[in-house]
Amino acid sequence: MTGAIRLHSVAVERFPVAGAFTISRGAKTFVDVVVCTVTDGVRTGRGEGTAIYYHGETAQGCADAIRAVATDPAAFDRHALRGLMPPGAARNALDCALWDIETRREGAPVWQLAGLPEPSPVRTAFTISLDEPDVMAAAAARAAARGFSLLKCKLTGEGDLARIEAVRQGAPDADLIVDANESWAGMDIAVQARALADRDVSLIEQPLPAEHDSALAGLSLAVPICADESCQSLADIEGLGAYQAINIKLDKGGGLTEALAMAKAARDHGQHVMVGCMLGTSLGIAPAFLLAGSASWVDLDGALLLARDRDEGLIVSDGMLQPGRLWGTGQ
């Protein structure tokens, strides 16, 4: 008999990275994800979150937070949940599990329940990890050979122009965006942007630490800039006037429910949307995929960077990401 939704289980699962994922803050060889399962006694719904490590989150901490909030029946209402838990990966896992069970109860896919267009294949960026220029060039060539035509290059400040020139040699026809992960403090951002524009880079993500956003005010840059670490949740968007785009990640914002509100607010403020992700499996990427159709940039390669993914995960072919059957289908 169908009853009230309640927590069924919470687990931490580890997935190895294919090689290493390296940014200005360090390298990862595996990712721990928290998987939340809810039930109404007949159906179940699942959601996955990846801890925001630069906030001090851990997968185990997220699991503990879900168990703690699950003692309150209001936690199983998506809208009430936003007032019970702060933004972050724990709320994301529970929010997405609630969407998943809702779609099974209603017999309709999540995209339909959320008033979104039916998902179709989209071009995703593929990340080129931070490394020496020749290594990044080789990685770019391999990605281009797999059909990826949009490459996201991780940068760190010193030596970045040489890295981009090497990537361009490795993948001469690819579109390039770059992500500094807050590493350009003390640099002349306008000069750096001009140099990257000359090398056909079309977007710069998070050049400065979030607390230095005021340094971007009034700058006229040759390449648009996108807020990532500066844009965690809906509450941040009002203060991001120096940015032309925001990167929405469900793990930062705390779920698909928050992400939908963020996308609307960004567009109301005249900003473009990038849909991004943390490292994670297709179970964590699938909810974000629903936002991809209306995004200016899609960066949903988190599962593609793993050594293995879940069964029935998202499919990639010639750089195009296609929906799978793992989450939110109503079946």
Automatic annotation (TrEMBL):
The first-level EC class reads isomerase
Q: Which keywords does UniProt give here?
A: Isomerase, Magnesium, Metal-binding
An example of a Pfam family matching this protein is MR_MLE_N
Which EC number(s) are documented for this chain? 5.1.1.-
Q: Which Gene3D superfamilies match?
A: Enolase-like C-terminal domain (3.20.20.120), Enolase-like, N-terminal domain (3.30.390.10)
Which cofactors, if any, are listed as required? Mg(2+)
Q: Which domain of life is it from?
A: Bacteria
Q: Which residues form the Mandelate racemase/muconate lactonizing enzyme C-terminal domain?
A: 133-226
Q: How is the cofactor bound?
A: Binds 1 Mg(2+) ion per subunit.
What family does this belong to? Belongs to the mandelate racemase/muconate lactonizing enzyme family.
Name the record gives this protein:
Dipeptide epimerase
Gene source species: Sphingobium lignivorans
